[in-house]
Amino acid sequence: MSSIARDSGRVPPVWERLPQIFGYPFKTACLTTLGLAAILYLIGMVVPLLGLILVIAAWVVLYKFAYDVLEATARGWMDPPEIQRKSNSWVLVKTFVLFVVLGFAVTGIAIVTGSLTLVAAAAIFIVLALPAAIITLAMSNSLMSALNPGTWVGIMRSVGFPYFIASLLLFMLSVSQGMAESLVAGLFGPSLAGHVGVFLIGGYFLIASFHLMGYLVYQHHDMLGVEQEVTAADRARAANPDLSPLLQEVEGLVAEGSVDEAIERLQKELRQSGLQPEEHERYRKLLRLQGRTDELLAHSREYISTLLYGLEQPKKAMSIAEEALRVDASFQPEHPKQVRDLARLADQYDHHELVIRLTSPFGKQNPKHPHLPENYFLGAKALFEGRGDEQKALKILRQLQKHFPDHELRERVDELAERAERIATS
Question: What is the DSSP letter of 26?
Fold first, then answer.
């Protein structure tokens, strides 16, 4: 998900989760189940007497797991279930009956009306309603509820447009499955490898499709009245095991939409014992997200000092200063010494604009400060080398020559003034 989506507590829509959906069947629990089902299927293909039973058992294992995936995802689990959930072994029979009844419904309309238009409309409606029927069967384990058109329409209305996007994605998955199965069948023919390959492909797309439907329910669980077993905070902590305990707590608050509370938690820690670099960055990002500019600038002043003299990260200190100046053109560091030190660094790394913006107001704010000559010299140097404004640079240098004739930088001031004058008069 995009960082802004995560920061605002927004659940990414299903179409933004396609990479995770396609990767879901490759997780350990899915591969284990798929492997077990494939072994049963393989044995069923070669054992003459018990073969049919084992083949059916393979499909039961697979469908039972797929329904568990749907129900677990819908309740907030983004990893496959590793223990049995509430679906039972009759789920394949119920699914079969569901498909048969829906098929008979279309056939009945054709027989009674004889209208191709009505038959086509009924078929389209049933195809669109099928995800809602499967979702209902997974969540309620009730075939009667799954066959109730009112339930289908209720889900469609509650979810709205995303439901139809998800239906389109499921249709595309079905088409992709058919193409993949045809490719494998064409490569291996009616051999054992071909049959098992087709089974594995079917299992992969079945799990991915059911995870997609489960995620659709999870995304709209409030409107559908589906109780969550995993909080957003729990998911955030599980997704970031390498973060500090403080950041895990903060990510949990953000995932629940409590961004201001997360900021307060970081502020409290900042006052009490300070923050680690990654915690500083998260704090700043949340302040930006909430538009809390004054607090961001205040933190910039404190953080620049930490970066310069504590963490010794000069480039980061310059970056913070540049960001602060973009937010507020009148920004100045916490202490005059930091202006000189930042200006030196910026001069060293040829950040000429930063030098100019830091040093320009220094004389008005600190007219008698001992760092004033050096700051003005660095500012003149940045004007000359960065902007190519030799006239303005020369004016500042002449003032330095006049008012600070014995300063330790006098030789460098004279040299730069000579260069600037030579270009200005050429």
Answer: G
Does residue 103 form part of some domain?
A: yes
- The CA dihedral of 253, 254, 255, 258, to the nearest 10 degrees, is 70
Q: Are residues 235 and 220 in the same domain?
A: no
pLDDT digits (tens, 9 = 90+) for 93-148: 899 999 999 999 989 998 988 888 999 998 999 999 999 999 999 888 889 999 99
- Greatest Cα pair distance in the chain: 108
Cβ proximity of 346 and 355 under 8 Å? yes
- Residue 365's nearest CA partner among 340, 345, 342, 383 is 340
Q: Are residues 116 and 261 in the same domain?
A: no
What burial letters (b/e) apply to 29-57, b meaning 16+ CB within 10 Å? bbeebbeebbebbbebeeeeeeeeebbeb
pTM over 0.85: no
Q: How many domains does the chain have?
A: 2
**Last residue of one domain, picked from the residues 265, 287, 309:** 287
- Which domain range does residue 260 map to? 231-287
DSSP 254-293: HHTT-HHHHHHHHHHHHHHT---HHHHHHHHHHHHHHT-H
Whether residue 267 sits in one domain with residue 163: no
Question: Pick the residue with more confidence: 45 or 85?
Answer: 45
Distance of CA 417 to the CA centre of its chain: 53
